[in-house]
Amino acid sequence: MNVPASVPNWSVPDVFEPDGTEELPPELTRSSEPTSDTRTAGSADEPPRRDLTSGSGADGTGPTSSGAERQAGKGSGTGKSGGTTKGTGTAAAGIRTDVEPADLSTLLSVAVAAVGGSERDGQTAMAEAVGNAIESGEHLAVQAGTGTGKSLAYLVPAIRHAVTAHTTVVVSTATIALQRQLVDRDLPRLADALADSLGRRPTFAILKGRRNYLCLNRIHGNAPDEPDEGALFDAFAASSLEREVRRVHDWASDTETGDRDELVPGVSERAWRQVSVTGNECLGAHRCPVGSDCFAEQARNEAGRADIVVTNHALLAIDALDDRPVLPEHDMVVVDEAHDLVDRVTTAAGGELSGNAIKQAARKCGRAVEEEIADRLNEAGEGLEFVLGELEPGRVGEPSHQLSAALSGIRDAASACVNALGPEQREDVESGSARKLALAPTQEIQDTAIRLLDGFEEPEQDRRDVIWISAENNRPPSLQVAPLGVGGLLRERLFGQRTTVLTSATLALGGSFDTLASQWGLPPQREAKPATDTATAQEPPSDDSEPSWVGLDVGSPFDYPRSGILYVARHLPKPGRDGLPDAYLDELTELVTAAGGRTLGLFSSMRAARQASEQLRERLSTPVLCQGEDSTSQLVGSFAEDPATSLFGTLSLWQGVDVPGQSLQLVVMDRIPFPRPDDPLASARQQAISARGGNGFITVAGTHAALLLAQGAGRLLRSAADRGVIAILDPRLSTARYGGFLRASLPPFWNTENPEVVRGALRRLDEAAG
Ligand code: SF4
């Protein structure tokens, strides 16, 4: 790594100068040397571009390799070539058979030119690797830093594959922001740009869970309202709920998609519940009187005809978990924001039982079954509420007699309701809707109770599930269950079914992909062999049952050592349990003052964020905003508009802030973001790995912290012109043994532990910004 030896002097924004007496490193003597960004913009010393033609020769005759043919066979018969798809604006009909799809290299050049960008080495290498994965069927993990243009690098080969092999490629994201970027910006531009080279305009669609679409059956009044306890006793809540639901009814006649995200301003969760259904609550398009106009069905049909389907990790997980597919037939998946995959799949594979949810289900059953049977379920809910109220939150090893009895009672009462509701009958739409709305949650309660009771049968160390009582955010206690690991599930239901490309700016933790790969259920990465290498007698036999994968780090076009400083406040005390120590607040004050505001404060708890905001407002002349004081998007907007403003907050800001330019030149993190020691799932996973002889702390807590640190640090440099400082107040990043692993998970910033040096750099940056 080429790290400058002297501190950046940003008084001239794009020039990295020595500070004081420090020696200028040789590579900085040529101040006119182009940065990596200007090099990749097509300067004279740009390396020759690689040929990305994957196995089809350089003549651009399209994929004729056996790999492509195999995939064509798999995806044939989808009949999507004549369909129209949301967002494309043009029908996919009219394939020009006289046009051979161009090779990948040409398509990438066309795509980059169309979006007004410049070709970048990392982007080219990534597109080539994705093309190879498609050809070989070998899974791929790609770390692509900010500024690589990774969405183009996977979309172009994915589109080419979908079009040439007549199949669908699914692209999954963790956040709505990325989903929107793909569907509203990247894919429309690519579809236009690539149409001529591919012989037709590629199509795309977005697909979400059914709950995200308006249910017309409910809008038409064919299904009963959700029982809402809050509104029952609170007239104000009732009228605000009524207003929201009325607004959705008005919107229903205007919307073309019924997609909740398009309703602006949005409505509360309880209002949306009145107008939507889950997949299990849906009557089924064949029985539903408005099934032919149904928004969710339209989205599904459009997705079935599309080349690229954008979805989220939760739906991807449900598709893998459920025997009934929710995604259209596809032979390849791209998982963007793959650092979040394990958490999202864990949530989708988990379950919850609370007194409230059981009583709610009982009220729904009360409309369709005998009162006595529904009452039994209601009493079982009250019983659970009482038992959980007596127990401490945290992991449950041996259940108490009362807890076991409560669970058995819930299982039996739910089962009685399910039996009484019975299978689908010849009934009118209203009765059928009421029955479905009662059956879905009651069946889920029955299944979860059985899963918990089965789990308790096993000794704790042998369980595949972790069970705990949660009482967070002042909510009534609930019983939670989640799988100890999701690797087996992903290995069998994702990697075992189709070629998968996983990508993110952060995948190689501590410099290796293996930590995350083990959580995904993939074996350790094999050493890359030279192309000419051949198998020898000494080589161990390969395990054919293991999914084969390769890891690739394409770096970032950003010049981290020249653009950013990583400052660790080694002189501070270790963080304590009782809020932020005074020394932290003093350090924070001096840093923000030197930066002239422009600070994003990422705190490990809301309590710390509030404490810092209150204290710094008294000490500073520049404004400080705190998460929770307005909607996060409003706060981020105000922060971006005024460089003097600082924004403090917690988890959602660690990943959700994209503010290039001079409003964000300092990112402060109060402590290494380890999971809480009493986090039931993390501690159970940690223990299980240690029991097998592994390093549970690094694999679980270290991975969690490394991912968040890297995500937080990723907020600083959002464009090649950005400059700034990452300040970690927690000295353990320098002093603890695991510090090296964590630091190796961060981009190669210039490092210092000297507060004077970093404040000087911030002041120069502030002055340069003016
Ligand atoms: S098909 Fe299902 S989701 Fe669609 S309108 Fe009918 S009940 Fe609602």
TrEMBL record:
SUPFAM superfamilies, per database record: P-loop containing nucleoside triphosphate hydrolases
Its EC number(s): 5.6.2.3
A Pfam family per the record: DEAD
Domain Helicase ATP-binding: 109-398
Biased composition (Polar residues): 29-41
Any GO molecular function: nucleic acid binding
Gene3D superfamilies: P-loop containing nucleotide triphosphate hydrolases
SMART domains xref list: DEXDc, HELICc2
Domain of life: Bacteria
Co-factor(s): [4Fe-4S] cluster
GO biological process, alphabetically ordered: nucleobase-containing compound metabolic process
Bias (Acidic residues) ranges: 16-25
Keywords: ATP-binding, Helicase, Hydrolase, Nucleotide-binding
Coiled coil: none
Top EC class, one word: isomerase
PANTHER family reported for this sequence: DNA REPAIR DEAD HELICASE RAD3/XP-D SUBFAMILY MEMBER, REGULATOR OF TELOMERE ELONGATION HELICASE 1
Family of the protein in this entry: Belongs to the helicase family. DinG subfamily.
Protein name, per record: ATP-dependent helicase DinG
Lineage, highest ranks first: Bacteria, Bacillati, Actinomycetota, Actinomycetes, Actinopolysporales
